[in-house]
């Protein structure tokens, strides 16, 4: 909804000749997510099936990494200006007058 409103606003400014199509300023910042992991990874042990205790195969168990509840699995850790953040990169493009371009504003996953 916000992008549609901003796009319509920019169309009206462009029709009046206020928006200039050349020159742009790119601002990259971090969007933090409140759903960050706390502590180390959690692993849960899964027993494949119940078998005879004397069998060596029954002593082997599968280990699976468990996802913690309420953790944003798409977000990543990044260090910016000596501070560690967990979230997404946010790119905002403006023209030389400071008008925000909705087609070039987005959040991308940190790598």
How would you portray this structure in words?
- This is Transposase IS4-like domain-containing protein.
- The mean pLDDT is 66.
- This protein has 111 residues and is of the alpha+beta class.
- It has one domain.
- It is elongated, with a radius of gyration of 24 Å.
- The chain has helices at 2-15, 56-59; strands spanning 24-32, 42-46, 62-66, 76-80, 83-95, 100-109.
- Strand 5 (83-95) and strand 6 (100-109) form a beta hairpin.
- The longest helix is centred in the first third of the chain and has 14 residues, at 2-15.
- The chain contains two helices and six strands; from the N terminus they run H-E-E-H-E-E-E-E.
The number of distinct helices, counting runs of at least 4 residues, comes to 2
Q: How many strands in all?
A: 6
Determine the fraction of residues in helical runs and give it as a percent range.
10-25%
Tell me the count of domains: 1
What kind of sheet is the major sheet?
Answer: 4 strands, antiparallel
The sequence of SSEs as H and E is: HEEHEEEE
Shape: elongated
End-to-end CA span: 28 Å
**Mean pLDDT over all positions:** 66
List low-confidence stretches: none
Class of secondary structure makeup? alpha+beta
């Amino acid at each position: 909804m916000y992008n549609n409103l901003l796009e319509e606003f920019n169309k009206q400014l462009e029709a009046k000749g206020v928006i200039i199509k050349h020159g742009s300023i790119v601002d990259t910042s971090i969007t933090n997510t409140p759903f960050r992991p706390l502590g180390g990874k959690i692993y849960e042990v899964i027993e494949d099936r119940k078998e005879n205790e004397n069998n060596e195969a029954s002593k082997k168990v599968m280990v699976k990494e468990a996802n913690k509840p309420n953790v944003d699995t798409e977000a990543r850790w990044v260090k910016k200006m000596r501070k560690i953040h967990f979230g997404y990169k946010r790119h905002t493009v403006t023209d030389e007058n400071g008008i925000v371009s909705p087609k070039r504003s987005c959040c991308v996953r940190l790598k």
